[in-house]
Amino acid sequence: MREEQTAGSRPAEAPKRLGDILIEEGVLVREEVDKLLELQASQQDGERQPLGKLAVELGFLSERKLRDLLDLHGKRLSLGELLIARGLVSADQVEQALEIQGEEGGLLGEVLIERGWIEEVALTEVLAEQSDIPYVPLRHDDSWKLGLTALVNQSYALSHGLVPISQIGRVLTVAIWHPATLALQQEIEQSTGLRVRFVLDMRRAVLERIQDLYGLSDTDVARVMAEQKNGPGMEAKAHGTQAVRYTDLGLSREEADVLGSIHDGGEGVFVVCGVTQDQVEDVYLRLLRFGKASGGLDSARKVGSLTGLGETKDPRAAESLFRDIRTGELRLAIVSAANTTLAFSRLITLGVHPERLAKELLGAVAVCSVRQNCEGCVTPYQPHKLVLAEWFGARPAPTRANWRRGTGCDLCGGTGYRGAKLVSEFWTPTESEREWMRMEGAGGAMRQFREDFLHRVTGIGFKGLQMAVDGKTTLEEVLKVLPPQEVRSVRQAA
Q: I need a labelling partner for 111 at 20 to 30 A (CA). Which of 24, 98, 133, 413 fits?
């Protein structure tokens, strides 16, 4: 039985300062933080910048990295707190607005506007400050339209409340009206093959820009505004809950539903692993944001019961990951492993007892990013016989395969690829697998377990191969990015 931690059983920890977090996360060293603090102290009171913004301006980290760290460590003030601190509304007005929001749904800012307690421009300026993105009032002219509709389609723009406003080189600037849309950055970058920069403006201005770009009617815009009561891409429910789109992580609909149920009500440990460290960290942070965002994506899980513990690198961190899990607590961690079963093996190697793993490990997701063919120059081709042999051995390739590759064009910068897609392997242990974990651990039976496991779970090797068979990428690209053992698993099963 787990014991509930009672109030007063341990002293409350003092909140960490951003400078300490930057050092702890390996973003800066102590000398660099000291220099930033010294520079901050030298600024006049009315012009003194927050440490994070100062670090971004001086090039120590990106705006996106700062935003992720603020979310991860709970350093971002809520919208209500910011509005009160700026003297734009009173504490009583925020309290009343929260009560109305709880009864009727919707967004806090929209409730405040409807009651006449704040102007939309003032609210937008504070949302921009809270999200660390610039507030840019949109202009209305025709010079920005060329080619933008090919990058983001109409239905996506409408459903998510965003609109592309310019492309300069490899940077696409996208206007949004709600900070929840920031969670789509990786998805847009993968689909367009461009680096995305967000700016914020009022909802009406963004929707009018969408109307202008795609030639929509006033009726279309009015309908979208009514549907987006709770925010872009969100259903208008009584309590404003949000079903997170886990399919964006490369999961099937069935896998996404299971991961959603773990996220909303799981108790134990869930790990993220994969081929590329940047992709693993990005998925890890996205899962944390889904649970912790208080002014954007909502969740049935209360803030605080989802704990992010970062990468589990050593035995001490591994032991801490599984120690004293409170009732209702879900812990999220990164494990350095190429697939989900290797993540389990890695935890055993770090000293976690098999019995504890069998009891507390809820599951794992492994991710890999695969470049997609550029649709502007894609053409049929026949992979080399040596590449086919790597995947299928002496057996023939699937006769239904639609082998395609890009030849290179202006859209893809001559690479033949445009954007990328995540492929993911998702594992939640069955009762028989938990029993195997107790009995066998990570001994010599691991390889056999992996082979048996792949009869039930679609591994990242099989998902990557399916992309190539469907003509979405090349067989060579998947061979290059996947670990050799994944290609071997496919070859042995062929």
A: 133
Same domain, 347 and 302: yes
Which pair of structure tokens corresponds to residue 17?
A: 């300062």
Q: Are 404 and 286 in contact (CB under 8 A)?
A: no
> Which residues span the domain enclosing 278?
246-493
Tell me whether residue 109 is in a domain: no
pTM of the model: 0.57
3-state secondary structure of 314: coil
- CATH number of the CATH domain containing 199: 3.30.300.160
Token pair in block for residue 194: 């461009």
Whether 21 contacts 13, CB under 8 Å: no
How many whole angstroms separate alpha carbon 60 and alpha carbon 18?
A: 13
Q: What's the rounded Cα separation, in Å, for the pair 159 and 299?
A: 19
Helix (H) or strand (E) holding 426: strand 417-427
φ and ψ of 285, to 5 deg: -70, -35
Quick: pLDDT tens for 304-340: 477 888 889 889 889 989 988 888 888 999 999 989 9
Q: How far is the C-alpha of 43 from the C-alpha of 49, rounded, in Å?
A: 8
What amino acid is encoded at 450 in this protein?
A: R
DSSP line for 442-463: TSTTHHHHHHHHTTTS--HHHH
Same domain, 278 and 403: yes
DSSP calls for 68-128: HHHHHTT-SPPHHHHHHHTTSS-HHHHHHHHHHHHHH-S-HHHHHHHTTSS-HHHHHHHHH
| Residue 245 exposure: Cα atoms within 13 Å on the Cβ side | 12
pLDDT single digits (tens) 435-482? 888 876 545 566 677 777 777 888 899 999 999 999 999 999 999 999
Question: Do 89 and 200 sit in the same domain of this protein?
Answer: no
| Token digits of residue 237 | 């429910």
CA distance 436 to 430: 10
Distance between CA atoms of residues 201 and 472, nearest Å: 35
